[in-house]
Amino acid sequence: MSSRPHSAIVFAIVLVAIFILHVPLLQLPYFWDEAGYYVPAARDLLLHGSLIPITTVSNAHPPLVMAWVALWWKLAGFAPLITRSAMLAVAAFSLLGLFRVALRLANVEVAVAATVCTALYPVFFAQSSLAQVDLAAAGLTFWALSAYFEGRPVAMATWFSLAALAKETAILAPVALAGWEILRLILPRIDTYIGSMPSHPQGSIPRSRIIFLLTPIVPLVLWYAYHYLKTGYVFGNPEFFRYNVASTMNPLRFLLALLLRLWEILGYMHLWVLTVGMALAMLLSPVKHNGLERRRIAIPEQAILLVVIAAYVAAMALIGGAVLARYMLPAVPLVIILAVATLWRRLRWWPAAIAIVGASFVLSWFWNPPYGFSPEDNLSYRDFIVVHQNAERFLEARYPMARVLTAWPASGELVSPWLGYTTRPMQVVRIEDFSLDEVLSAAEARRSGSADYDIVLVFSDKYEPARPLLERWTAWTDMKRRFFGYHRDVPPELAAQILGGKIVFIDLRNGQWAAVIEIARNEIQEARLCAPHEMAGVGLDDQPDLASNFKLK
Q: Is 408 strand, coil or helix?
């Protein structure tokens, strides 16, 4: 495999492959942050031509990805199938950028294996068809890194600028690289120890390259200036800024988040199979052909990748209220390139090792780890969507005029039919979550007359295994509550008991659940509700033993 395939051919192959793999997911309604921000923002751009969201509170995210999705809707129609197809095109383009980086640093074999592993990595796979911005920012960063290694500063600055306009945190990569170049200028001994890239001869560090690396700051600043003029806020609404920046400035929280970020780039979702394999391979001598060792990625080029990885690990530990794995998508594929290149160099049967890694990644699409995690990191997000679909269709059919007590994102799903869950808006009374305190407050509000609702839709807002790995480590649970907004959802049985109702519908699916609780009604409330409609679904009468499966842990 010595010839270099044409980029168009690689893109076509990758797009067809990931499209086929995602066919069962393409018509799913919108999930979590899609429904809460990105799809409403893109819809506002489509309908009103506004770069600033109108129907949701602005988080100051740059509008590039939303504009891309709105363009597809304009050309092909507003539907989840169109949205997810548009994002798969972005995913394929991102993988092509990664392929070009690996090809430039190593060879075709490493490039193909690294691209396949990245495409199969559960977090990348799950994000590939979701209308969110992190994967697009990562892909544009890969294209910028390819131009950087090839010594094309104008192309590099352009790609980094587009990455920053996809998501503001993409500015981390060019700023980190500029800092690295400045450090090399100040301390020329660095090049003596590690050497310099082939395209950047030793002793040649053009200052213009630093300027090009800092150029992407300009369009990002212009965007924030525009956002400030329109909203009065620079970095999004005050609550968004407080949650993602102001509330994270705690040394202990930073240390905990740093450990979590290191886990996400080294072990999360079976990534440890690859990184442990890399570590073990380092104990072996390089494979030789005709007396020559297989070539490694040059040390200066490895240093560049490590600079970008370190920048994301440190920055994403410092900011971001939720320590979401998708924030690390620009960094994890770079780790995959380094690991695959090591296996190729030191293992004669390296394809077998890559096959094991790929199989472990595919297993993680369906297998949930023994600790809580975000459903968007594997196919658990599909289970989340399906249980919400079933519960909300049941609600719409049987209680179309009811006032429904629930939390976000179900509150948005019920009032916005264009999200794909209901055919008409329903009346919603919203609470923050289904923690014990919130449920008790909702019950007290109804008794005091300050809140009026007939039906309650409760659901799991995170995956919780039956026996969490760190279940008995109370200190860790306390720290999660303090720093990461952790809470335990009240099980449906207990919620029904507290709220004075009965469970009339429940659906469980691979650790995700949703239940409908009917509150005891008087004659006036009875008249407010439509007569129950028959519906093909899962009701409590259909599965009378399900509610008993829930125990307060």
A: coil
For residue range 319-358, what is the model confidence (pLDDT) as tens digits? 887 899 999 999 999 999 999 999 999 999 999 999 999 9
Q: How many domains does the chain have?
A: 2
Residue ending a domain, choose from 348, 367, 386:
367
Residues 355 and 400 in one domain: no
**What range defines the domain where residue 211 resides?**
7-367
Quote the mean pLDDT of the chain: 89
Question: Are 268 and 127 in a shared domain?
Answer: yes
Choosing from 322, 338, 367, the residue where a domain stops is: 367
DSSP state letters, 424-446: S--EEEEES--SHHHHHHHHHHH
Same domain as 387, residue 361:
no
Q: What are phi and psi of 49, to 5 degrees?
A: 65, 25
Using an 8 Å Cβ cutoff, are 96 and 9 in contact? no
Instruction: Determine the Cα–Cα distance for residues 380 and 386; give it in Å rounded to an integer.
Output: 10
Q: What are phi and psi of 371, to 5 degrees?
A: -155, 160
pTM: 0.90
| 183 and 44 part of one domain | yes
What one-letter code names the amino acid at 52? Answer: I
N-terminal to C-terminal alpha carbon distance within the chain? 55
For residue 411, give both structure tokens: 């509150």
- Do 274 and 403 lie in one domain? The reply is no
Give, as one character, the DSSP assignment of residue 348: T
Could you tell me if 224 and 235 are in contact, meaning their C-beta atoms sit under 8 angstroms apart? yes
Alpha-carbon distance 480 to 492, whole Å? Answer: 23
